[in-house]
Amino acid sequence: MSDAPPTTGLHHVTNICTDIEETRSFYEDVLGWHTVKRTQNYDDPGTPHYYFSSTPGGEPGTTVTYFEYPDSQGTPGPGASHHFAFGVEDEATLREWRDHLREHDVRVSEVKDRTYFKSVYFTDPDGLVFELATQGPGFARDEDEPGSEAIDPFERGYEN
User: Fold this and answer.
1) What is the DSSP string of 81-128?
2) Looking at domain 12-68, which CATH architecture does it have?
3) pLDDT per residue as tens digits for the range 92-109
4) What is the spatial distance between Cα 114 and Cα 153, in angstroms, rounded to a whole number?
5) Where is the VOC domain (predicted)?
């Protein structure tokens, strides 16, 4: 056991986008989130920094922020995020989300059984991968042989 002081969990995640208005529209119009703060990157004055939250108040743990860098183009690799996941209550809600995303012309995967939960994958306007994942059955469930049930989320592609 580490002697590190405790944390309270995930506070927020910050990403980079090329068009803050397109990203704002995606979060508000497609995901139904709230823009809770518009400011600048204090480490790079003049660079927009927007805060989006699944709650109107933008409490820690519910917030994703973006810096706008119009000319940026990244390649996933060490030091970069592969994807991040938002939770949903159950598989019925997951399927509702899949239908909702399709209605908004967002390419989304079929429902994937991840052993510990079920999920779907899609991307934002800049190609950042999102996952929506059910609460259960939970991480305490193990595969008979670890890694034997690994599935590439994109092996079957997206459907509209």
Assistant:
1) --EEEEEESSHHHHHHHHHHHHHTT--BPPPEE-SS-EEEEEE-TT--
2) Roll (3.10)
3) 999 999 999 999 999 999
4) 9
5) 9-135
**Tokens, residue 35:** 């823009």
Residues near 28 by beta carbon (within 8 Å), at least 6 away in sequence: 34, 35, 52
Contact 53, 60 (CB under 8 A): no
The residues with which 37 forms a beta bridge, in sequence order, are 51
For a pLDDT cut of 90, what percent of the chain falls above it? 66
- Tokens, residue 86: 């938002």
pLDDT tens digits for 114-149?
Answer: 888 999 999 999 999 999 999 877 766 566 665 555
On whether the 83-134 domain is CATH 3.40.50.720, my answer is: no
Phi-psi region of 31 (alpha: psi -120 to 50; beta: other; left: phi over 0): alpha
Q: What's the token pair of residue 147? A: 């890694």
Residue 11 tokens read as: 């506070």
Close Cβ partners of 129 (under 8 Å, ≥ 6 residues apart): 82, 83, 84, 121, 122, 123, 153
